[in-house]
Queue: 3 jobs
Job 1
Amino acid sequence: MRLWSIHPRYFDAQAVTSSWREGLIAQRVLAEPGSSLRSHPQLQRFLEAEEPLEAVAAYLGGVADEAGERGMALDRSRIIAAGSLREPLVVTDGQLDYEWGNLRRHLLERSPEVAARWARVWRPQPHPVFVVVGGGVAAWELA
């Protein structure tokens, strides 16, 4: 499961679709308190939110917004919470950089034209649910 901290504007169509799918999986896991997948490292940030389901709903909303900008249709009725966050989630600049390196490698392999569009971006903007703070790569990423 990969729940990117990067704004979906930098994604190719495959990453938009997979982010939607992975977000829906995260939503299902968070809605089931006894799920063994709740310990998945990618869910850590959402579990730390005051309202984890609201946080993942906001994440899904951001992905759906980008899909809509591209003329892609995602079924927003699958989002089970309102998606209203009182406080943004936190992502470190080190984590954002780490993910950017991973995403760029994926884009170079499968969507070179998208990679070329963003070649001059040193650090991407975060997904709208995140605010960037100083720090290294997240411990859950390296686990």
Job 2
Amino acid sequence: MFNGLSWPDASGTMFFVPPLSGPICWATLGAGVRVTRDLRGHSGRAAAEVAGVSVATVSRCENGRALSFDGLARLAAYVGQHPHAYTAPALLGRPGSTGNTHCNSLISQEAGHAD
């Protein structure tokens, strides 16, 4: 399990993972949970049991709503990803960035670009 410095890959080999940074793209996590759940043939209840979260947390996640870090970590592990995979650090520090991961066209509009 995640210990803050390393994370196992599919073969069980541990590798270093940088700390979380940037905004979390909740919709991407939700889509990953939904696809993983469907591929495994899990109901929402079964996914919640395997991940160690409530059914309400699975539902919130699949609807792109924010979760606690514990919920994020457990559902990212259910999908087989490190929580860092759901952050969007590329948006940080970009001139005109709104930080809105759902509508990147706003970045150009705020920066005054005519594209």
Job 3
Amino acid sequence: MIYVSPLSGVVDAIRTVRPSHLVSLLDPETMIDTPDGIVRERHLRLCVNDIAEPNEMLVSPSAAHVADLIAFIRGWDQKRPMLVHCWAGISRSTAAAFIALCTLNENHPEDMLARLVRRRGAHAHPNRLMVRIADELLGREGRMRDAVEALGPGRAAWEGELFSLPIHPEEFVREQPAS
């Protein structure tokens, strides 16, 4: 499973879901140290601001940041959960979770994976710059970008709640209501 959380829920999430890997997406001023319960080498710390367009006054998500994220995801053995968080658990972390799903499920439709993120986290509003970069790096030919755009805005919230995502689409299909 992949879990998505706001920063305020990280300590509780580590205690309850016992992840082996942690991704922190925070601006440089609020980046955290590796929390107890996580091995330092399994904590990816990406210092980026939550912006959808490059801005020279802030740290924009870059191709290097997203490539590091993709490499970290590919190095995860999936034996225990991965926890992904940002400040509010709404934008950067949900983008990272969507990128993880696309990385781990190369042959599955991006729109289905984006809808899974939204279904599990109604507040999810994936960072479009991160998604656009990942789309290019993963060779998805605009499909990741289009899938996130098609979602529209998530439910309005100051902070998201902890939610989980099955990492394989067949788990998603089994959860769909019968038509």
